[in-house]
Amino acid sequence: MPAFDPFLCSGLTGTCFKQPQQGENNMAKNNLVILTGNIGAEAKIIETEQSTFVSASLATTDSYKDENEEWQQTETVWHNLISFHPVVIETFKILKKGTRIKIKGSVSYRKFQAVNEEGRLLTTEDGTPILKQEATIRVDAVELAPLFKKR
Question: pTM higher than 0.85, yes or no?
Fold first, then answer.
């Protein structure tokens, strides 16, 4: 029997993902992201004709002790989250803004053409479109994350 993996079960919803059995595709996952942070806003559940998914944001901030042994925080980094997993969608339905969570997933990127404040497409001097790249974390699992005491 496979070892218990807390990322595959949600204690909040009481459901679990099916773990691969022997002989099933046990492909290695090299694009693995694990983040701990606070939910930035209430998650949005989006339903289309093709699928249902959740969209959310996660704020992460690192901290360190300075030369005076005082705790300092680094700049907050915002991450875009998306998931198509039913367990993750149900879990995000009950999580509130500011809740500290730990997510496991993979990062994907999409390119898009940059626009200015007026909505005009940005180009270089020779007219070449300026492309930007945005990262999104595709969440496979989510769990509550306790706040550790700093020593």
Answer: no
